[in-house]
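Hey all, quick one. A colleague (J.T.) asked me to put the zinc ion job into the tracker so the inputs and the structure tokens live in one place instead of scattered across chat threads. No bug as far as I know, just bookkeeping. Sequence used:
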Amino acid sequence: MNHQDIFEELFAVAQTSKDPRGVVSACLVRNGEIIASAASSDDGDEHAENVLLNNFEQSTEGVVLYCTLEPCSLRVRGQFVDCVSAIAGASITHVIYGARDPGQSDLTHRRCEESGITLEQVDDPQIIERCALLFNDTVDPQLSQEQAPRKPLD
Ligand SMILES: [Zn+2]
């Protein structure tokens, strides 16, 4: 599967989530094939990466994590593990994401570098735009007003 095929599958998986804080999906790819996938939880508490990695028990050697949104490195609500920590904890060393998260990007890049994780944005403007729309179109504005206002993703 190429990037396009993998992200098409991520967009299909995203349809299974009702996450009111913005839907994100993620998958694990080994030798060009998707071996596991997940979307963010319907209550918005568990990020796609958490759902994915909590349910994955195989070796992650040679596995690349793909996600529609740049992984978070800081959770402000509740007692949840941020996704960079979850990825590092799962010994995954290569991440390819779609949309950038402006509020987290600098810290995420720094922490990935420290943890030996290669973080790469997919090189396809159309995929990036669809990933941003997926998130932005599923954010409940009332919920985001209760939280710190989020800048639209780019
Ligand atoms: Zn996260």
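Adding what we noticed when we looked at it: The chain is about 35% helix and 20% strand. Residues 3-146 form a domain with the Cytidine Deaminase; domain 2 fold (CATH 3.40.140.10).
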